[in-house]
Amino acid sequence: KIGEGKEKKVTIHRPSPVLIIHCHGGGFVAQSSRSHEVYLREWASHLKVPILSVDYSLAPQAPFPRALEEVLYAYCWAINNCHILGSTAEKILLV
């Protein structure tokens, strides 16, 4: 059989008490969560903390306050679903 005798190593991590919620820069008119992915991956790896990066709608197609509403919705979703993100959300950092 293919792969017989090879065992996969599974690492189980405890949920982090911290959750970082990241809102990318750009003044709600430019950039995306993807444009910040490089350093966010480094942060998550170094800090061993899950990061939720919100990719909100941009103006002028989505006028104010749409982006802020989407950030609030993401925050509420994260609190209610922190277990999916690997966190207990005891401490939330908004970046």
TrEMBL record:
**Record-annotated Alpha/beta hydrolase fold-3 domain positions:** 20-94
- So which domain of life are we looking at? Eukaryota
Q: Please identify the protein, giving its name as recorded.
A: Alpha/beta hydrolase fold-3 domain-containing protein
- Give the species this sequence originates from: Timema podura
Q: Return the SUPFAM superfamilies for the record.
A: alpha/beta-Hydrolases
